[in-house]
Write a structure and sequence with these properties.
The protein is α/β, with parallel strands linked by helices. About 40% of the residues lie in helices and about 15% in strands. A seven-stranded parallel sheet has the order 3-2-1-4-5-7-11, with helices on both faces. A three-stranded mixed sheet has the order 8-10-12. Helix 1 (about 15-25) crosses helix 6 (about 220-230) and helix 3 (about 85-110) runs parallel beside helix 4 (about 145-160).
Length: about 350
Amino acid sequence: MNSSAGSKVVVTGATGNVGTSVVGLLSEDPGITSICGLARRTPEWSPPGTEWAAVDLASEQANLTERFEGADAVVHLAWAFQPTHDPAATWRTNVLGSIRVFEAVAATGVPVLVHASSAGAYSPGPKDRKVDESWPTHGWPAAAYCREKAYLERTLDVFERDHPEVRVVRMRPAFLFKRESASEQRRIFGGRFLPGPLVRPELLPFLPDVPGLRVQALHTDDAAEAYRLAVHADSARGPFNLAADPPLDAGVLAELLGTRPVRLPQTAARSAIAAAWGLHLLPASPHLFDAVLHLPLLDCARAHDELGWHPRRTATEVLQEFLGGLRTGAGMDTEPMRGRKAG
């Protein structure tokens, strides 16, 4: 994107975990003249140079072309994690809504599309080495989140073929956390009734050590910096892995929390999650748990080399900050990010 021409950036899903960080960074960028944040519910929070519009991507009446006219870039972040018991509902927002975004980008001649894909789009991979962006993106088919992310990778393959004039960037980050996202993510994955203050090291006599549970994390603000760089980098195209070191497993987490890991078979852990999910006590499905066990570790050399991107925080620092946010009920002044210690 040629910043000398003046830059208008449209951000979908602008009030969530990633959206608030992206909008915040873009509002501080002297190369960005205006930001249009799209969300289902407009917030009171309003960084400099930002205007808001209420748009529901799941609706066939969503008028995206009006919002995209004159934009130099669209950063597409909007995503619905729930209801996990109704995959047709998330498909309408995540897949059909994303296709509406892609079509509107092409119809209005927006030259840059930065799309939030995910590590969850990847096919099962190794836990003892890292994979680059050439690893297959077929997802874990039983998990709606992975299935939808993988489907959109195929959709963008066709979009790029048909619209070579659009510079398309696909971000594939690991798990994203920040202090202000703690309440939102507790509700999404742990449920409304999990009390944040109970997430304390002294209340954990041991930490379940599930074979295969080794993942990566990244501070949301660090991910947002990669999005900002991608908006400006005229040569940046295609996928970029985003993650921080070290990879997180039971040993690292137990040391961080001052407790001890205790081996728990995958079948026992999955059965407990499946029972709670079946009773609607836990929003996170056992299928997503299966997917996490099979996610590959990400090699981020391409983002380092081509975007000049490097995370400022380690994965352990990210988790420490997030746990502090859980205990205090941290949040922000947007509907998805509202702070609350318990449901």
